[in-house]
Amino acid sequence: MAEHAEHAAYPVGLRLSGRRVVVLGGGQVAQRRLPSLVAAGADVLLISPSAKPSVEAMADTGEIRWERRRYAPGDLADAWYALISTDDPEANAAASQEAEDRRVWCVRSDDAEAATAWTPATGRSEGVTVAVLTGRDPRRSAAVRDAIVEGLRDGTLAAPHHRARATGVALVGGGPGDPDLITVRGRRLLAEADVVIADRLGPRDLLAELPPHVEVIDAAKIPYGRFMAQEAINNALIEHARAGKSVVRLKGGDPYVFGRGMEELQALAEAGIPCTVVPGISSSISVPSAAGIPVTHRGVAQEFTVVSGHVAPDDERSTVDWSALARLRGTLVVLMGVENSGAIAATLIAHGRGADTPVAVVQEGTTAAQRRVDATLGTLGETVRAEGVRPPAVIVIGEVVAVNPSN
Does the active-site annotation cover 180? Predict the structure, then answer.
């Protein structure tokens, strides 16, 4: 091998399913490489007097076979691939020579130049395997691998499908507003979309990154302004999916936390349209966190409750038991409650929650326009009006509002 070291390695993907692979040594190298071999379906035989606990666990569960002994000549018979990683240089050299004689592709952890194969830095993302070789610089290989895989996962590296792909709809929770807080899967699906139907509260900055051919439809369910009826949204999802498009319904927060995601899923199911739901980070926990407020804290709050405030407490349509909420001692998080904040506060006080209970209102949380307004339950309605607080805003009620790093 040494005389050919100046030549680049020829990359190839080994199909090892059901084929014998021999691993010599049960240390750190085996611990790192065995999961990939098992995932490839290989018939793995480990030969080693001892093994790392995680490697031993793989043998205990039957994922690999383990012979507790040292290497012996003939161990590589009928093998397709060998990984040599013992701490015995003589055994490594002997096993490497056996692999050469039997024409078994062999990786050596102690002497790459003596090996007939090199293990690339590998990573996977949605059916794509990335393998990187940079010769004698494994750290660079890993860095390049990580950059490519991360780009594929978060959609920053465009890799459209060019063969037939399944069409349908993805209900994607975009998180509280900061584009960096969408999930990796959500961002990747967004990058692969043909049509995006977006809410105002979704991470709007991501829409600017979409290719020119992507059709963006503004669902525009804006409080106090124009709106797109839910039925029209459902119809748009169905229409574009039936046209063979990959459709993303980009929603703020999580699709199932006051996001009417189930209504859209039911409409798609009735129409026979396949649908994927991608959870998102709910503003009920992320926005308080971004404003420095823990919704739970040891010795202060052992519970938190999330309610919608878009319907006033005295409205016959309200299904919230405000009197029960007033008796709770934990944190109360109110979403969509700006307009009814005064009525909500008055109702909680009337049912026993202290008027001096700390309250924080966080407007446009996690975005560049985020601001926090503090009040008490007794002054909440007046403060919201005086400060001109507008949706979207999250109201946090409870002693956790007063918790700070110095407490």
Answer: no
* Percent of the chain residues past pLDDT 90, beyond the cut: 64
First-to-last CA distance in the chain?
64
Task: Report the chain's C-alpha Rg in angstroms.
Answer: 29
State pTM to two decimals.
0.65
Count other Cβ atoms within 10 Å, centred on residue 261. Answer: 22
Q: Which two tokens stand for residue 331?
A: 């944190």
Per DSSP, 400 falls in state G
The sign of the CA dihedral 87, 88, 91, 97 is positive
Tokens 């050596």 belong to residue = 108
Task: Establish whether 75 is a catalytic residue.
Answer: no
Catalytic residue among 43, 221, 251, 254: 221
Which of 166-175, 304-313, 332-341, 377-386 shows the lowest mean pLDDT across its residues? 166-175
Cα 318 to Cα 323: distance, rounded to the nearest angstrom = 13
Distance CA 136, CA 25 (A): 22
Residue 177 has pLDDT above 50, yes or no: yes
Regarding beta strands 246-251 and 195-198, do their DSSP bridges make them parallel or antiparallel, or are they unpaired? parallel
Which of the following is catalytic: 178, 194, 199, 254? 199
Return the SS3 of 275.
strand
The encoded tokens of residue 133 equal: 């070789």
Torsion angle of the four alpha carbons 273, 217, 254, 189, in this order, in degrees rounded to the nearest 10: 70
Kindly report, residue by residue over 88-126, the tens digit of the pLDDT: 999 999 999 999 999 999 999 888 888 888 877 777 776
What tokens were used for 115? 């090996």
